[in-house]
Amino acid sequence: MNATPSSNDLILQVEHLSMKFGGLVAIGDLSFQARRGEITALIGPNGAGKTTVFNCITGFYKPTEGMITLNRNDGSTYLLERLPNHEIPARAKVARTFQNIRLFSGMTLLENLLVAQHNKLMKASGYTLLGLFGFPSYRQASAESIELARHWLEKADLVDRADDPAGDLPYGAQRRLEIARAMCTGPELLCLDEPAAGLNPKESAALNELLMGIKSTGTSILLIEHDMSVVMQISDHVVVLEYGRKISDGNPASVRTDPRVIAAYLGVDDEEVETVLTEVGDEDVIEQLDTGPDSAHGPGNSASMMAGPVSDSVEHANEGERVTVSKGASKAAQVDARATSIASKPQSAAKSGTAKAAPDKPAAKAPAAKAGTASKGKDTAAKPTAGKRGGRK
Amino acid sequence: MAATVSSERDTVATPLQRAFREALYAGAISLGLFVLFIGLRTDQNISNELILVQRWGLLALVVIATAVGRFLYVAYGQPFLASLKVADIDTGLLPETMAARFFRMPFFIAAVVIAALLFVLAGSLDGLLGPDLAGYARFVRALAIIYAVAWVMYYFRAFIHAHFSALGISALALYPIVVVLVLALVTGSMAGGFQGSLKWVDNFGIQILIYVMLAWGLNIVIGLAGLLDLGYVAFYAVGAYAYALLGTHFGLSFWILLPAAGCMAAFWGVMLGFPVLRLRGDYLAIVTLAFGEIIRLVLINWREVTNGSAGISGIPKVSFFGLMSFNVSDPNYIAKVLPIATSGAYYKIFLYYLILGLCLLTAFVTVRLRRLPVGRAWEALREDEIACRSLGINTTTTKLTAFATGAMFGGFAGSFFAARQGFVSPESFVFLESAIVLAIVVLGGMGSLVGIAIAALVMIGGTEALRELDFLKRVFGPDFTPELYRMLLFGMAMVIVMLWKPRGFVGSREPTAFLKQRRAVSASFTKEGHG
After folding, report:
1. How many domains does chain B have?
2. Pairing relation of β-strands A237-242 and A245-250?
3. Interface touch B380/A107, C-beta < 8 Å
4. Min CA distance, B513 vs chain A (Å)?
5. What is the interface pTM, i.e. ipTM, of the complex?
6. Looking at the domain that runs over A7-93+187-257, which CATH code has it been given?
7. From the DSSP assignment, how many helices (H) and strands (E) are in chain B?
8. Does B522 sit within 8 Å of A108, measured CB to CB?
């Protein structure tokens, strides 16, 4: 983030967003911004919480904490976490697509796009009453909506199949149709959840073109994508998530070279991590190397029932307990830890190259020989003390 | 390994051998199935003791019939059906279809001649043939008429297909007139024509149209919005009791109470809709089923208002917009206003046109609503509720409007029912009614008005037609009542249609808008909805 942009430049501000499912923290304190008229990409490994962020923005989930502000072109501001689900597309003008395509498969392409214009047409039909009696105002609105649908069908290169059922389309065309349908709601922010998933290179290129076309009409785009060719080619700004936390944020070029991002995607050498973490004095690693029972969670010294509640030694999902990803799981955190250790121990400067060199040896992420290696991310269950600390995943 | 293959596989059984074997299996299965159903029967003797009646002869008959039927089907039916699909080598054409073979010109002429002859002799049939054979003769006459009508429909099928709605509506509009005229010709007097038309207009016409209307109303909830409602009869009951109570206590006219009953039912539709908004699929079905029962139990137990199981009688008749009444004692009785003879048939014919009008209103509103955003939203809701919400559609109000609109038509039908019967009691609103209406919607093809109308015609008309088969008593004995077999007919029809057309008579969906060409959407793409 170079200069703080004025709120008018920003279409979406996500501040301190957290989403917890029971004890699981899917997103932890995430803040990022999307600028108006730009394509912002949200990337990260599987399970990083990207779709959860989308669901929070589009109202399918109510976030546990945090604020999501949307600034519309006309200057009005909406707090998305407070709007009911269906009002987010209707009033805040945020449209979305789904990772697993959700079309109205039994309706024709044209009908799909007409359903997307529901609110506009509902108003024009006088909430059904005028339309029922065939008032001309509705007929005109209906003709206009068909024109808009035709416009987007042409953009998506689907106009020849306008009268076919949506379920009959090939996969790539269904993806394009879903985007066209979202555009028919007249959005200012379009959220696309993996639009390029399952597309061949040609379809992927056509998608890029469609997205650039949408961008040129002034609609901002928020994009989840795994296909780096799409992300790097079209996005203006990239936010990288790992385990629900932001690990990088910037333009595509800077994100691409960020060691934290590389580590998150490709992993780092396990052995190396452990040495580094031990050097830093990471308590988890030390605890694990120390083979004694975990006194905090194991049964107390006394066998008496008075020593403490049984549940303490069996079940750990107490109310309010926060289950987070184990410390060693986050690759980005390992890189951070290593950087700290390097900074504090200049004599290990020889190792400084490894941080950058990590991408050169992806093979290092072979299955760990040591059962207790923290970096496998299997939380405490994999530890020698598993018997004592078991009972949760 | 090849040696382990059983030797039976080496020789292919001839169709006759196979048929014989399958006939034996079928006979054995039917013996197992029917030995307790048909072979043994419990009955009461004259001193009220329970006795076991053995009917081995009948059982043997059923088992042999099953075996012979299976034999004929496998030995001759299957090869014949297969031969229909094989093209001729010389001409490259498929053989004549079954329908073309069945509907030939000479057959048609024969059918017309037989029907005409039997009509001419209608009066003297009993004298000529005796009551036994006269019954058969009337049955033959009915078959000849059905065949002739089917023949005409077969030869003009393209025309009928192209103008189905117009033809159907004009046929329905002309139906009472044709019935009266034909019967007048047969009996030789206009009064006889009116008297004879009672059964055809009331039992067939009105009865079927009530179910058509109910099914079209339920179609909005199930077929369009995909919300499985098993308690639809509750709204029928609300409409009927609204008219019965307000009409008898306050003397309000049908024309005021019809919309009132519709509103009342729509209100209860919303009341039901609110608690079940979050439910889907099976859970929704069970809660709506319970709602239907609650309404019925309230009607039974709230004696002060509803008069309990005894029901409400003396419900006022519908008047012709207040201009003419159908009560003989009234000064503006129709026969006094118009110079015509007194007859009870006028009221039935009037009611027929009334329910026809209500049905057409339902169809018109449904067709219109489908092309409006709310109707599209219903169908979208059936296809994918989450996608609906992502497009800014308020699924709560959309579901509630579907419940309310469907319930409103149920209420209309209910108030018409009360006016027609002149009497309502909770017994008319049992779960079976909901099930029948649901069966009609499913058989017809969810969402299709034409399919549902045909299904209602077949199911309700078919069960009514069973009452006409009195001559069967000569075959099966005087205890045989064919109408008791209507549930069997219902079940058979459901099984056959679901095997032959799993999505109902009309499974395809008509799109509500098109860019270049209107093409029906195949049923394989549409979803049934999950509540």
Report:
1. 2
2. antiparallel
3. yes
4. 7
5. 0.78
6. 3.40.50.300
7. 24, 4
8. no
